[in-house]
Automatic annotation (TrEMBL):
Name of the protein in its database record: Acyl-CoA thioesterase
Ranges annotated as spanning the membrane: none
SUPFAM superfamilies membership: Thioesterase/thiol ester dehydrase-isomerase (SSF54637)
Domain of life: Bacteria
Protein family per UniProt: Belongs to the 4-hydroxybenzoyl-CoA thioesterase family.
Keywords, comma-separated and alphabetical: Hydrolase
Length: 151
């Protein structure tokens, strides 16, 4: 686990920074095309790895989500490809919690470690869905508690 370069988002209720995290990866051969450039779909996988680390940090990983009785589908995912990742590149993938009271928004940044260049930016939005399939207009109390405990 490494320090993440995304600017912190300040929680309006506590005035403290929301949790963020980062992880380091080396681009494997099987993630690249014949020119050694990472296939665009794998960036989503890298975001997911960072999101899982962030959710673990607030003690609300996918197992805890399922046990809470809510599902959290991704309803929006945005990526901005700035420069390609290539086979063998060492990258840092950062995830920063940006919203949690009504939805779960996580911002992402991928940059290479050699030149510290931004390669990809993005965000994901997840919403809570209750056991009957109903969309929740506010995040369930369990998520609010977990985030506040991590502050």
């Amino acid at each position: 686990m490494s320090r993440h370069p995304l600017p912190p988002v300040i929680d309006s209720a506590s005035g403290r920074p929301l949790p963020g995290t980062g992880l380091e990866l080396e681009i494997p051969f099987f993630d690249t095309d014949p020119m050694g450039v990472t296939w665009h779909g794998h960036y989503v996988k890298y975001f997911e790895l960072a999101r899982c680390e962030l959710l673990k940090k607030i003690d609300f990983g996918y197992r805890e989500m399922a046990a809470s009785g809510f599902s959290w589908p991704v309803v929006d995912l945005r990526l901005k490809y700035v420069k390609p990742c290539r086979f063998g590149d060492r990258i840092r993938v950062s995830a920063q919690l940006a919203e949690y009271e009504n939805r779960l928004r996580i911002n992402y940044l991928i940059h290479n470690q050699a030149g510290n260049q931004v390669l990809t930016r993005g965000h994901s939005i997840q919403v809570a869905v209750d056991g009957s399939g109903g969309l929740c207009l506010h995040s369930p109390e369990i998520l609010l508690q977990r985030v506040r405990s991590a502050l």
